[in-house]
Amino acid sequence: MQIQYCYESINRSCEKNGWSNNIRIPMYVFMVSTILATVVGNLAVIISIAHFKQLHTPTNYLILSMSTVDFLLGSCVMPYSMVRSVENCWYFGDLFCKVHTSTDIMLSTSSIFHLSFISVDRYFAVCDPLRYKTKMNVFSVSLMIVTSWVVPTIFAFTMVFLELNIKGTESYYYNQVSCFGGCAVFFSQTSGLVASMVSFYIPGFVMLCVYGKIYVIARRQARSIKDSANQMPFQITLGVNQHVSRSRDRKAAKTLGIIMGVFLICWTPFFFCTATDGFINYVIPPIVIDAFVWIGYLNSTFNPMVYAFFYLWFQRALRMILFGKVFHPDSSRTILYSE
Fold it and tell me: Which Gene3D superfamilies match (predicted)?
């Protein structure tokens, strides 16, 4: 089979993938479907939380911000990654390659930062409910959201535009990896380890610890409620109300824990390769790493599905959006769940 190049008339042009249409077309169908599901699903979450006043809560503001991250990943990053993955060519210029790579790293990192702060929010809701509203106020939530956007942005764009990701391996990168018409995401030993720790391992470990604590406290609360079932009538009513509130908080924590688990499952293969590839002389094939990138992207696709499956308020909001009821007067004041 004759080798094809991204730019036939230019020396050191990258090789195109020599796949037949039997492989290329299913890949495009899968990736386009993933992109559409990601964009539509997260847009539905954004519209739901932004439109309905009952959903204007600290946790939902964080979810709104995270859905915006996933929406941007699906609409601004994944389409270009699709062309690069299928064709093994980059037709959009070197500058946009750096912008795309920076944005990709930034949004992926921002997503797990949001999940970290959501776990903190759930910790106070379940473990310290009496002081929850004072601790998770507008200022603290705004600070979490700003941090989740600004820190990953500075980290990603600084790393890529200052070429810190290839520092120490410039000779290997320019001789063995770089070619005209390519846009490879490459990390040296140090930068790969640092990026994985900052973007994934450290915040992921924090989340696991926080949710472990939430699980222990929630089990303790459940036993406490069960032990107080034989109280006075007034106390029984009060206990029931507390039980409903705590049950809702535990369910929210469980749901967000599942979202976190999906994130870890989706992104662990990619970040494991990123952290270790430089130490094993880059023996992992680029096509494998690229496949792990798309598995990571699926996390942004799955999040709205988790909301749709577990959150009754999202199911009701989604029905109103699909049937156009959000355009009715005072639809924003619709009660989606009982307090």
Answer: Rhodopsin 7-helix transmembrane proteins
